[in-house]
Amino acid sequence: MLRQAVELHRTGQLDAAEAFYRRALQTQAGQPDALHFLGVLCHQRGRSDEGIRLIRMALRATPLHADAHNNLGNIHKETGELAEAEACYRQALACHGQHHDALSNLALVLETQERFEEALQAYVKLLEEAPQLSLAHYLMGMYLRRHVNEIGDLEQAVACFRDAIRCDASNVRALDALGVTLYMLGRQDEAVGAYRDWLVREPENPVPRHMLAACGGEVAPPRADDAYVREVFDRFAESFDEQLLKNLDYRAPQVLVGALIGVLGVAEGALDVLDAGCGTGLCGPLIRPHARRLDGVDLSGGMLDKARLRGGYDELAVAELTAYLQDHPEAWDVVLSADTLVYFGDLAEVLAATSAALRAGGRVAFTLEAMEGDQDRPVLASSGRYRHARGYVERVLDAAGFVEVSIAPSALRKEVGQPVNGWVVLARKRGHGFG
Ligand SMILES: C[S@@+](CC[C@H](N)C(=O)[O-])C[C@H]1O[C@@H](n2cnc3c(N)ncnc32)[C@H](O)[C@@H]1O
């Protein structure tokens, strides 16, 4: 029964697996493996407290079970109890000195607690103990890249990712990291090679396809593919706020909403507002005082789950932005979009749809990444995001029926420690409506 439960668990049939674990426990009360795995399953289903209780019961019967200590650590880590997680990983290592998962988890949890020196020691120890383990090289590379401003070195990180791929050519996380790090170093030609290798491994994956185009290895699409956006942001949703606010100095929501409020005036809570590409909802609380109704739309369900938790929106829709706007004629007084149209090269269609979705006199406010000069064609940069020239934006806004256009330069985020120049764009739909 336990074997069957484990197989069902492994293949993601969680209802059936849970039933089988429970039946195994009815047959043999306190069976430690059943308790341990049922604990992991409970956590996966959002019942972390029950999971912790079950694994602790298992550990009372088998106190030297390193995997159970490690899994208990993982639950604590994912519920934000970092000190408890650390203690569990140390217990796992006390039971089994060469438990590589526990050691890599310990390193990560030390790093999350900003105990960088101890974290580095743990990453080094893992590499010494397991020089053939692809994960060990990958984690060291990621550590060096994250700490590029202090001890890190991107060249060394590249070497680590190449070693990770040498140990295991199917480690696509290492191929991904290698591609990104090479573009950070400005070595686009080599990044193209990494993305080609990744595509050979995963021909259906939209991420290497998009990044290959971004590095000049293929023709750029008019906008990022829906599947690419979904894949990237569903994966990013959990760490988005922390990453952007802490590591990238992300200011687009504050700067954009600040500029918008400058033209909207005193908050009267009277406007119907759409946050287009709302992500985790960072703009929501900033614009809420001006809104009678606040809607959000985004392609990524993972990002929207976070926005739902943050609260403040009347409705959140998982949809592609242009299609969603086209389905809602004259629905809003304001459409704002922070750091989302950077995933669009050609802005003509989305801005025409925005114009149609606004009431007469309505306002649009959005940010872009800036391209100097007056190129009429947007460029897909090797970051995977598009850049637009001022003249192009003016022309497209004019064609879409916008007036009172203002395009102000502003640094809205950092990349590789350097500010990325952006545009903060405000415009008003022709005609007399509100305000
Ligand atoms: C960098 S995030 C910005 C999120 C939010 N506006 C903020 O400032 O925190 C970009 C968001 O745009 C969304 N996005 C990109 N292209 C989209 C499209 N075509 N339709 C809907 N959402 C899109 C992504 O899913 C992601 O959540």
TrEMBL record:
Source lineage: Bacteria, Pseudomonadati, Pseudomonadota, Gammaproteobacteria, Lysobacterales
Protein's UniProt name: Tetratricopeptide repeat protein
Keywords per UniProt: TPR repeat
Keyword match Heme: no
CDD domains found in the cross-reference section: AdoMet_MTases (cd02440)
Residues in Methyltransferase type domain copies: 274-364
SUPFAM superfamilies: S-adenosyl-L-methionine-dependent methyltransferases, TPR-like
The species this protein was found in: Rhodanobacter umsongensis
Residue spans of the TPR repeats: 66-99, 100-133
Keyword Signal (UniProt): no
InterPro entries per the UniProt record, alphabetical: Methyltransf_12 (IPR013217), SAM-dependent_MTases_sf (IPR029063), TMTC_O-mannosyl-trnsfr (IPR052943), TPR-like_helical_dom_sf (IPR011990), TPR_rpt (IPR019734)
